[in-house]
Amino acid sequence: MNRFSDTLLLWYDEHKRDLPWRHTRDPYLIWISEIILQQTRVAQGYDYYQRFVNRFPDVFSLAEADEDEVLKYWQGLGYYSRARNLHAAACNMAEAGGFPDTYEGVLALKGVGGYTAAAICSFAYDMPYAVVDGNVYRVLSRWLGIDLPIDSTSGKKAFAEAADALLDKSRPALYNQAVMEFGALQCTPQSPDCQACPLASGCAALQQGRVHELPVKAHKTKVTHRYFNYIYVRIGEDTLLRKRSGEDVWKNLYEPLLIETNEDVADNELPLVEALDALFDKTSLYDSQSNALQKGKRYFLMLKRRGLKHVLSHRVIHTNFYEMTMPEEGPIPDGYFKVSAKDLQKYAVSNLVSQFFSLFLSPDNLNE
Q: Domains of the chain: which residue ranges?
């Protein structure tokens, strides 16, 4: 067991990446980095981390910020529940006086699970808690030859016990960093360089020819398909926007007029027009004085892009982008508000909506 730890630490000393969150014991900064890296590669998360902590350097500055601003700084990272949980947890910590200094206190933070709590407590406080993330699952399953599914109750228990047994309790922070880095750079999911691996002689998976079989996952995530039709509504120099609510994807982010259909309508827009009719029935487009707009001619739709696929962890959003013109005196559907096209960059939006806006926010379009 000591050989495993010693080998990892020697490897880490030579190969570790120089990352800003590895030069601090501040639990707040470590927390931010761990939340960002939950679903984000280091290369992408690095710049986001720097911008985020420059704007929100401590729990209190994050708690004092408006959630809209927090989401705007998070824009592009995806999995926006992470940002909402960060903000909510910061508000609770600020009220309690600061960041907790016990494992139980850290684990109680909104959005923090066992892995993140172990990482924060070991890195910030040198507490002997073993981390078990995707990289660690892979390293341990191959080194020990564990073929229990990592997404099963028995598998999670077995890996937790193995991780705790292998943990170098005299150097938990260093060991945890090393085993995660080893999984990220050496014992990779695809094409690991086993011939150059310092653990090769004791690796059960390598000896058994099972490197590419491990780790095992029992369940495949069911993928659902949804069909979004985003419409850029031109109302003079303004457009329409709304804030998403409920527990659906992209909660509390902003978006333009959206019509969701049961299938792709790019080749048959009748369902889209019918949905628009239903949406505007509550706020008729008819001019009450002149009845200038006639039913059936009220929508001037231009398809800007079709068939765009936006892939999330367990859903695929098939999207068409449209443009539509409305009179300035026209009514606004429930839940939407007018905003100047020049101010759209102030609102936090999903990557998909950001792509949508890029089609319409060129200087030529803004000056039409």
A: 2-213, 224-366
Q: CATH for 224-366, among 1.10.10.10, 3.40.50.720, 3.90.79.10, 3.30.70.3040?
A: 3.90.79.10
Rounding to the nearest 10 degrees, give the CA dihedral for residues 337, 343, 346, 349: 60
pTM of the model: 0.88
Tens-digit pLDDT profile for residues 20-49 = 999 999 999 999 999 999 988 999 999 999
Catalytic residue check, 34: yes
Instruction: List the catalytic residue out of 14, 34, 95, 260.
Output: 34
Going by the DSSP 8-state scheme, the letter that residue 235 receives in this structure is: B
How far is residue 45 CA from its own chain's centroid?
11
Contact 288, 339 (CB under 8 A): no
CATH of domain 2-213: 1.10.340.30
Rounded to whole angstroms, the Cα distance separating 281 from 363 reads 34
